[in-house]
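Cross-check.
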Amino acid sequence: EKKFGAEWFTRIGEFSGWSGLAKVLLVAGKKNKLAGLAESRASTANTAIGLTPEGKLWALNEGGSPFRFRLDEQGRPVSIGYDTLGGTLQENMSAHPKMDAQTGEIFFHGRVLGKKKFYASRVVDGRMTDQAMLSVHDGFHHDMFITENYVVIVDGSMKFGPEAIVKQKPLWMFEPERKLRFGIWPRSEKKMTPESFQWIEAPEAAEIVHTMFGYDEDRKIILWTPLGRQDDGNETGILGGIGDLKMHRVVIDVAKGSAEIQAVSGSHLKTEFPRVRDDRIGRRARYGYSGLQGAGEFDFVGVLKWDFEECRLVSEIRFPPGVIGGEPVFVPAGEGEDEGYVAMFLWNSKTRESTFALFDFRTLSSEPVVELVVPDHDVPLGFHALWITEEQFQKQLALS
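Predicted model, tokenized:
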């Protein structure tokens, strides 16, 4: 678009009414071909940031392959290009691949909307070694999770329907007859194949957008995640017919082939963008955190801290009136489970000022440890963020 001198690719906001349907069916794909780009090379790469075990920085959007960039000595982003993983990846990657810092593996899922193409994949030493084509519903499929012994695909209750665009309804609508289910792959298997996945269905319809944390013990997988149920009155945003997302604990019994959805202390609160310490993914953690949602879809008015061992909400921060925050991100300050800070950008609608704030994660005091004004800039809130250490910064800097 920079070379062309004008907008070229269609945006999701254009998919409304009859003209929106025409763009979905007739225009979007043809524009890629006219530009000489494969579908996986036309992503906006604007949803999330990932850091691979070998130190590569990725900008991610599920509509394409990961877009690699690096930060220069002054911290400015420099584009490198789409990462094909040494020529082994030619398809889309989800916005939330799971990095196992202990084994160096990366697990991800991907799909092509409207073409019933969905797959789960594994990356080892910077190359995709496994890809299993899976049969799933035409749903949302935004996130997945891993534990020490399992990779788990989430197949929720949303249904993709481009015909809804004509009625100016969301692209995905809740399907109450479609129960939430999980595709489970044991990491002890040598190869990821469709036959090696075990599918376990929950007793009810529900949708998961972002998972917080999963772990396993005695062939039971414990997932903490915001979860939404049917709400026919909600037909705004991207997902329609779904109620507020609230924290739940899901117990998946691999041996019995069953799943149970449990409410926890704090399940009455509307919450999203859940996280744990990045170095705990695929292992055990005690604490997680998430954004407390306000009136807007992603306008966070506070931060919630969760205790996985005691199955409860530990504490919460609520921002002053008129202040909203972006995604809360953990900044480690030691090896302790909650030794560190929650970092986030804040927007004060009264002073019209953006700030960067650090909150003590151990005490979760509403008073920031430090709050820095962002001079001459308004930082847009939304989507996902990543904190990297000085060591990680130097490692990515050294990569070609």
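Helices lie at 17-34, 390-398. The chain has a mean pLDDT of 91. Passed to J.P. for a second look.
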